[in-house]
Amino acid sequence: MKSSFAGPERAVRPWHGRIASRWADWALLVVPGVIWGASFLFIAEGLAAVAPTGVTFTRIAIGFLTLSLFPSARRPVARSDWAGTAALGVLWFAFPLTMFPFAEQHVSSALTGMLNGATPLFVAVVATVLAHRLPERGIIAGLVIGFSGAVVMAVPALGGSSSAFGIALIVAALASYGLALNVARPLQQRNGAIPVVWRALGVAVILTAPMGLPAVISGHWTLRPALAMLALGAGGTAIAMVLTLIAAGRIGATKASATAFLIPVVALVLGVVIRHESVTMISLLGAAICLLGAAVIRDPQILRTVLPRRLMGVAARI
């Protein structure tokens, strides 16, 4: 009798495991996207109290202190990965997190968040160069869809006071992110996410302190920007980075970067609700397209349910 029930029992467990794994992968994409979408609002609030270099140093220092609370942060990192971890401190933290506050002196927080939807393109380009091959067709389709949505959202804002210099700073930061996420994946797989991020943040603290610490000391702090910096450092610089690094190890750097397509949507919503910014219908359409792009990168089979069967047949023959 035992043998007659053993087969079905073994068949059920893997099914539940796959469902749980899919939900975990989705959570690893959605949660960082929501946190980072709010980050640009927090940056704008912080700039009311301190200079851009002070915003960068404060969020990195708070992120470092936040991860210091986790005992796993002090797990050793292989000596051969020290250089890569230090590079991550520059590429993922010190450089791009310095670019964003300076950019928001020239462009709105909503537009900054919208443009971050292009991050997966830079990740995919770097991954393609490193692997010497193109991504899967489904991932390419998701990248094209997501980037199109980001462009659609950004176009109406470009007619306002946005500065080309500010946009150039954002693009430079996104290019750095693209390289960083590809560097981070093997480091995470060998050493774990928290030890790598904690050490990289430590490097970034050292690099940003000379200009950032004096700005923090001379800042005009009130409760609102202080709380914004606390949320930015603990959430956007520590927790979201760790979750994204875990996602990169589980599903790959390109797929993990799909979380960036959620950033424009969150930034757009917060711009309306918190900052009372006006939003056009075309921006709302772009937000929907961004969400579709993120979903397609995570699961290219979604295209089969979105596109008519005839179009899918044409796409398969191309």
SSE succession? HHHHHHHHHHHHHH
Main beta-sheet strand count, sense and barrel state: none
- Overall helicity: over 70%
Structural class: mainly alpha
Strand content: under 5%
- Rg on CA atoms, Å: 21 Å
Rough shape? globular
How many domains, as an integer? 1
Average pLDDT number = 80
Q: Could you provide a short overview of the structure?
A:
This protein has 318 residues and is mainly α.
What's the SSE blueprint?
Elements: H1 2-46, H2 52-68, H3 82-103, H4 109-115, H5 119-131, H6 137-158, H7 164-191, H8 193-217, H9 223-251, H10 253-256, H11 262-273, H12 281-298, H13 302-306, H14 309-317
Helix pairs in contact: 1-4, 1-9, 1-11, 2-3, 2-8, 2-9, 3-7, 3-8, 4-11, 5-7, 6-12, 7-8, 7-9, 8-9, 11-12
Task: Describe the structure in your own words.
- This protein has 318 residues and is mainly α.
- The protein has one domain (36-317).
- 81% of the residues lie in helices and 0% in strands.
- The protein has 14 helices and no strands.
- The chain has helices at residues 2-46, 52-68, 82-103, 109-115, 119-131, 137-158, 164-191, 193-217, 223-251, 253-256, 262-273, 281-298, 302-306, 309-317.
- The radius of gyration is 21 Å and the shape is globular.
- It starts with a helix and ends with a helix.
